[in-house]
Amino acid sequence: MRKLVLILLAISMLIPSAFAVDLSGQGLMRHENKNNSDFTDTVRDDVSFTASRFRLNVKAAPEGAKWDLFFQPQFTKVWGQQVSGSNTSGALNDTTNDIHQAYVNWNILEKLSLKAGRQELAYGDQLVIGSVGWSVQARSFDGARLRSTFFGRFTDMFWTKVKDNDVSAAAIGDDEFYGLYHSHDFGEYLKFLDLYTFNKAYHTGGTAGETSLWTFGTRLKSSFHGFDYRVELTSQTGKGMTKNSTLATKQSGNQADLEFGYSPNFLGMRISLEYLQASKDYDQLYPTGHKFLGFADQFSRRNVRSYVAHLKLAPIDKLLVKVDYHMIERLKDNKPNYNFGGGARGATSTSKKEDVATELDLTVKYTLDKGLFAQVGHSMVTAEGYLKALSTKDSTSWSYVMLVANF
After folding, report:
1. Residue range 171-193: average pLDDT?
2. What's the whole-model pTM score?
3. Does residue 21 come out as left (phi exceeding 0), alpha (psi in the -120 to 50 range) or beta?
């Protein structure tokens, strides 16, 4: 990996007349502390670690060409973590790099382009599909995306291979995710009107056959005269098929996320209220979930209802302060709450109470220099009703300090 990066750098210096090369990158280091994240003291689960991410972004193309190549090696590491039982710090053993993105982008026409290879996908506010930039690994897909700007802001058609099941042996088929996303600008009061449809097709083999889940949604967003709003509505329908194509199961789900805000001309302030809900069978697909249901990452978008208050302040240059308060409930009290990974938390008969938890998040960001900032955060999650009935601890906390450099 290091040799490859050096070769790319050498090419950019030795033959600048033949190639155009742009370089950028990022260094991120974050220390995190968590305690009692399962809301119980029967098993010690306090966690403390430091992780880092370093990226070099290389964009290269022949002079005057209508295509370019993007290559993004990524080095992620939990400091001091062993790999295959061997030390990787203070030892003669390095950890390996990996590739987060690697694709060719071809401008077929002035308003039509094709991106093929490993790439991030992020749409709208990343409520349904996001790159999860908070994670040191982040998310990317193997596939292709065709983008047109002939009508509206853009129209994307994409196809990705989530899992190839028949690389070395015959299998029933592959797991795929594909879709269509259109974004339009209707002016000041409706800056974003987005429409989308996605399909997640899993070919599980055996008697399970295949599943196909269709997702349809719309997003509206704009800001004007100090006010702003964001609305996103999503519905799903799906089916499971046996090998003889007889209908086995049906699935449906929906979610709604609404936020309304106001920014007075005072201390860089923005205040907003948000409401969200998701049905008991909603599949949250590939979101940047960390943005919506509390920074402590305790809850997923399924059988959930939440009321959120947001406050943002920029009292002085370079300083940003954010406070978020969440009240989280179950939408249906005959179904469980679900943790961040999508697993059911508790039995449905544990409690008929709807209240699950409250969460208070505090974030402080300060710009240290050009492209360099420090950020600290603290989250406190307090069990209520349903979750308290499952727990031996009434609260859990999570905190972090982070340094990020971008160039």
Report:
1. 92
2. 0.90
3. beta
